[in-house]
Write a structure and sequence with these properties.
- The protein is of the alpha/beta class.
- It has helices at about 50-55, 75-95, 110-125, 135-140, 180-195, 205-215, 245-265, 270-280, 295-300, 315-325, and strands at about 10-15, 15-20, 25-30, 35-40, 45, 60-65, 100-105, 130, 150-155, 160-170, 170-180, 200, 225-230, 235-245, 280-285, 305-310.
- The chain has 3 domains: about 10-130, ATPase, nucleotide binding domain (Nucleotidyltransferase, domain 5), CATH 3.30.420.40; about 145-180 and about 250-315, Nucleotidyltransferase, domain 5 (2-Layer Sandwich), CATH 3.30.420.40; about 180-250, Actin, Chain A, domain 4 (Alpha-Beta Complex).
- It has a 5-stranded mixed beta sheet with strand order 3-2-1-7-8, with helices on both faces. Strands 11-10-9-15-16 form a 5-stranded mixed beta sheet, with helices on both faces.
- The structure holds adenosine-5'-triphosphate (ATP) and magnesium ion (MG).
Length: about 350
């Protein structure tokens, strides 16, 4: 007997982290969107957090990839193996039968790419797949009333990308996908360490340093941390102390570019919607919204009120959980994706 029957599940297929939600239980599965595989055979050795820990540590014949990182999918086989193992194991572990799957896909995929991933989900055990636009799920999870005849705006700053959307009457009135996100910030930290300290550091180290010391405005007290990498000069491993002022400086260029993108986006938003948004404020979601000082800096630079959603990295997953639990409440909302490829900038 199936424990949860063939009920509904929700899946946030993020470019960095994949979450699965169950009705009444919230987020019950979170793993990195990573796969480790053998170069020659393309056999998957590990998926999820275990694969992420291997990043930068694999022998020559192995590789770790985040298959949703690029704007378009290059390795369909790896996507398939990764989602198949997650979904199949999940369904088995929770004794689900064949559940209906509410699926939030990374923004910017072409209709063909979306369809291919949806078919992979059916292969992995889903009965049917209901695609939900990532921006819509994120706004619902951030508790924004997007069904009202007023302009509302959500900015989801994730790993590889940021999606900006203005909603009114259950539809996306305006949107933009930008390549700002955690990856770009990690790259800025790596670049800074190389230029200023002649130190080559790995992606996981850059991310850890960004999370510990990164800010968009200085902390009240300067924090510091030891960073290990490879010296460009001696070629040998070396550790050095970096402080939060340096990392804040390192993050400036991509942050500055993103402020300009937001500025232009708001300038081009029709005035009635823009004035509603000014009254209600702009919600920030996605893991990168956790960067210290983001809310205050944007409020100051853009001149409109911003606020970070609770547990911002979980808004998409929570939006899916809400849809599964109260489907009738969202009947008037257009859950699907407008085709957004022409809006991707890089
Ligand atoms: N406290 C923090 N400070 C700064 N960045 C953080 C923090 N916590 C997580 N991040 C960053 O958030 C990013 C992941 O965010 P999130 O989980 O929203 O991405 P995703 O949903 O997988 O990606 P996307 O929405 O682009 O598909 C990572 O780059 C991570 O480094
Ligand atoms: Mg996301």
């Amino acid at each position: 007997m199936a424990l949860f029957g063939s009920g509904d599940i929700g899946m946030d297929l993020g470019t960095s982290v994949i979450h699965i939600v169950l009705k009444g239980k919230g987020v019950v599965f979170s793993e990195s969107a990573c796969v480790a595989y053998e170069r020659e055979t393309r056999n998957v050795i590990a998926a999820g957090d275990r694969a992420k820990r291997m990043m930068g540590r694999t022998p020559r014949d192995m590789e770790v990839e985040r298959p949703f990182r690029e704007p378009h999918i290059r390795s369909f086989d790896l996507v398939n193996k990764m989602v198949n193992s997650f979904v199949r194991n999940f369904i088995k572990e929770w004794k689900m039968g064949r559940p209906r799957l509410f699926l939030a896909l990374p923004c910017g995929l072409t209709p063909t790419e979306r369809q291919t991933v949806i078919e992979m989900m059916v292969d992995a055990g889903a009965r049917t797949v209901v695609p939900v636009d990532e921006s819509v799920a994120s706004a619902i999870g951030a508790k924004i009333r997007i069904d009202q005849p007023y302009g509302r705006m959500n900015v989801d700053m994730g790993g590889a990308r940021t999606s900006i959307a203005v909603f009114s009457m259950g539809n996306q009135a305006k949107w933009r996908i930008d390549e700002f996100g955690g990856d770009r910030l990690d790259a800025a930290v790596m670049d800074y360490m190389r230029r200023k300290h002649n130190l080559i550091i790995g992606e996981n180290t850059a991310e850890r340093i960004k999370i510990m010391l990164g800010a968009v405005r200085p902390f009240d007290q300067t924090l510091q941390e030891e960073v290990f990498g490879r010296s460009l000069i001696s070629g040998l491993p070396r550790g050095l102390i970096v402080n939060s002022d340096e990392i804040t400086e390192a993050l400036q260029p991509p942050i500055h570019d993103f402020v300009n993108v937001l500025h232009r986006f708001i300038e081009q938003t029709p005035p009635e919607l823009a004035s509603d948004i000014f009254d209600a404020g702009i919600t920030l979601s996605g893991g990168s919204a956790r960067l210290y000082g983001m809310e205050e800096m944007l409020t100051e630079q853009i001149g409109m009120p911003f606020h970070v959603a609770d547990e911002p990295e979980l808004t998409v997953a929570r939006g899916l959980a809400e849809l599964i639990s109260n489907p009738d409440a969202y009947e008037k909302i257009n859950l699907g994706s407008p085709y957004k490829e022409d809006e991707v900038i890089g």
